[in-house]
């Protein structure tokens, strides 16, 4: 069983959250054995289709839990979905999921990559942002091999290889991931201190 | 005639002020501005600007690496109603947490200089409010209390806009030739190839300008990159 966290931080990124609930993407989750989907959708609206189809009731904080596709087709397991706008326990959530699909915010990226063990991270930059320096960071980090990158339109193509790069081979998954994702170093806690000490005249 | 005289006076003052500002700018070749040696047990007062959101979380990481017995007392500057920054302070300080350190920090809330997408005129008004409050809290009140010492020996900033106001006010003491607050700017980890607007604005004025990716500083000789800091 695997679980996926989708997070947009404090931003408005309906293109991503709507896409996640499209039948195409949901079926990719089903066929790759994802059983839990946690969606932190920020300032966006919950997709109308989802609200109608599932008779979804959100509480005051925009929170809801639903099951999608409860084994109706081909005996596949259901997908348990938790939805909410914001959370105070972001780190705990990241810890509880194997895969993270995130907007390009540096906070989310650092949290996911510095978790022990580090999370497999797919970043989807929000292309509608005016000053899109966040995409710069995501590009650089993907060039260096720390994470995978996708845009919203391509998600159906990138998602299967993110979740399951070699579905037909019986490979050591752990080893495979080590090759796919370079380990992002932990924070060097002496670096800034020594710059400040130096500036202020300490040896 | 009076107008002309007035104009000349204003112009003259402007020129003098620019010369003075240029004289106090922290240029790389000015070795006389090397820090005085301190012994390891000496204390150093520090001010930390928490700029909200991602700025606050990066600043929190930076400050969490500092020895609080050395960098004390601490002044945290934040914007009104910024609860995330308040939480950041309480988590930083509770880590330091002994009772004897209770008065080792103060919190200084300022009106926000610019809200997201605020129009120009109202930005001007709110920025001048910020300026006046900050002028009193970090320049005038400390000056009246003890003219010899600045409100803090070092100020850490990493954006956004409001930190420009703090730099402006810190410059008054430099222009007057008094002991002044050193300023360190840390560009965001998210800035890979270019500087943020506040970074560009404060770069000539700060004593240390740190970027976290080698390309972020462009051709500027001032920007220093010592790798990732958060």
Automatic annotation (TrEMBL), chain A:
UniProt keyword terms in alphabetical order: Endoplasmic reticulum, Glycosyltransferase, Transferase
This protein's record includes keyword Endoplasmic reticulum: yes
BP GO annotations: dolichol-linked oligosaccharide biosynthetic process
Gene Ontology annotations for the cellular component aspect, listed alphabetically: endoplasmic reticulum
InterPro entries according to UniProt: Alg13-like, Glyco_trans_28_C
EC number: 2.4.1.141
Residue span(s) of domain Glycosyl transferase family 28 C-terminal: 4-174
UniProt-annotated location(s): Endoplasmic reticulum
GO molecular function (one): N-acetylglucosaminyldiphosphodolichol N-acetylglucosaminyltransferase activity
Entry annotated with the keyword Methyltransferase: no
Pfam families: Glyco_tran_28_C (PF04101)
Broadest EC class assigned to this enzyme: transferase
Reactions it catalyzes: an N-acetyl-alpha-D-glucosaminyl-diphospho-di-trans,poly-cis-dolichol + UDP-N-acetyl-alpha-D-glucosamine = an N,N'-diacetylchitobiosyl-diphospho-di-trans,poly-cis-dolichol + UDP + H(+)
Assembly mode: Heterodimer with ALG14 to form a functional enzyme.
Purpose: Involved in protein N-glycosylation. Essential for the second step of the dolichol-linked oligosaccharide pathway.
Family according to the record: Belongs to the glycosyltransferase 28 family.
Protein name: UDP-N-acetylglucosamine transferase subunit ALG13
Gene: ALG13
TrEMBL record, chain B:
GO biological process, one term: dolichol-linked oligosaccharide biosynthetic process
Transmembrane segments: 120-139, 151-172
Compartmental location: Endoplasmic reticulum membrane; Nucleus membrane
PANTHER family membership: GLYCOSYL TRANSFERASE-RELATED (PTHR12154), UDP-N-ACETYLGLUCOSAMINE TRANSFERASE SUBUNIT ALG14 HOMOLOG (PTHR12154:SF4)
InterPro entries the record matches: Oligosacch_biosynth_Alg14
Pfam families per record: Alg14
Family (UniProt): Belongs to the ALG14 family.
Main location: endoplasmic reticulum
Gene3D superfamilies reported for this sequence: Glycogen Phosphorylase B
Free-text function comment from the UniProt entry: Involved in protein N-glycosylation. Essential for the second step of the dolichol-linked oligosaccharide pathway. Anchors the catalytic subunit ALG13 to the ER.
Topology versus the membrane: Single-pass membrane protein
GO cellular component labels: nuclear membrane; UDP-N-acetylglucosamine transferase complex
Protein name: UDP-N-acetylglucosamine transferase subunit ALG14
MF terms in GO: N-acetylglucosaminyldiphosphodolichol N-acetylglucosaminyltransferase activity
Keywords for the protein's UniProt record, in alphabetical order: Endoplasmic reticulum, Membrane, Transferase, Transmembrane, Transmembrane helix
Assembly and binders: Heterodimer with ALG13 to form a functional enzyme.
